[in-house]
Amino acid sequence: MAKRILVVEDNDLNRKLFCDVLKSQGFAVEPVADGKVALERARDFVPNLIIMDIQLADISGLELIEQAKADPLLRAIPVLAVTAYAGRGDEERIRDAGAEGYLAKPVSIGPFLAGVRALIEKAIA
Length: 125
What we know:
Elements: E1 4-8, H1 12-24, E2 28-32, H2 38-45, E3 49-53, H3 61-70, E4 79-83, H4 90-97, E5 101-104, H5 109-124
Parallel strand pairs: 1-2, 1-3, 3-4, 4-5
């Protein structure tokens, strides 16, 4: 059965790129453009991984990560934060919120897929 990945990204081009790359690798993907519905979609889709943009238009990805980690149904799902925030202390702040992985934009396909696979394998173990 294909591993399921929820992609929370409000930029249309980034969301399509992430989803196309993941689908080409055999993952089942659920795209979410609106951060306000992300956790509800996660509860319905039950992903093996959540890819979370941090700088969403309507809500902070940091806030969504914290809410997911406080939710008994979602807390065990690993989160890969993908963000333009690449300044001093940003990675630490994002990991402190509960993200297990962190990638700075612009994202290259190789490191992106390596990060996805590492978190999915870790979740299975």
